[in-house]
Amino acid sequence: MSRLLAALVLVAVMTAPAVAGHPLAGPVLTIDPSSLQRLTTGGRRVALIDVRPAEAYQHGRLPGAHSIPLDTLIPRRGEIPTEMIVVLYGAEGVDDAAPAFRYLRTTGHGAMFVLEGGFAGWQARGLSIER
């Protein structure tokens, strides 16, 4: 029940600004898989956050990613570091992780991106995954 409530609150938080024309409904910053790979292999501290359901994470994820499913984001937001570059990703495309990006932007997270293509885009390029 608490997961459902958290998901409903997240939906309300994310849709209210858009409906009201709030400035926090602005664009989502994205990063392509090649640029992300350059960041991580170049020694930059990057926190990879997988917002897919936990079951999907168990079947495969980006190397070093942490699972924080979208429906648990609000109570677990403290697990996302503020001193690192944060890259969020969902199953595919930007739309899966955009709500997480917009919510975290309201909580003070700065250097944050959504992975273009999500997990599917990363995998389609033949980049490494963990299982």
Please explain how this structure is put together.
This protein has a single domain (2-124), classed as Rhodanese-like domain (Oxidized Rhodanese, domain 1). It contains 6 helices and 5 strands, in the order H-E-H-E-H-E-H-E-H-E-H. It has 131 residues and is α/β, with parallel strands linked by helices. The model is unreliable at 4-14 and 16-20 (pLDDT under 50). It is globular and about 35 Å long. It has a 5-stranded parallel sheet, sandwiched between helices. The chain has helices at 2-20, 33-41, 54-59, 73-76, 98-106, 118-124, and strands spanning 30-31, 46-50, 66-67, 85-89, 112-115.
Structural class by secondary-structure content = alpha/beta
The arrangement of helices and strands along the chain is: HEHEHEHEHEH
Low-confidence stretches: 4-14, 16-20
Strand content: 5-15%
Helix content: 40-55%
Biggest sheet descriptor: 5 strands, parallel
Q: What is the name of the CATH class?
A: Alpha Beta
Q: Average pLDDT across residues? A: 86
State the CATH architecture.
3-Layer(aba) Sandwich
CA-based gyration radius: 14 Å
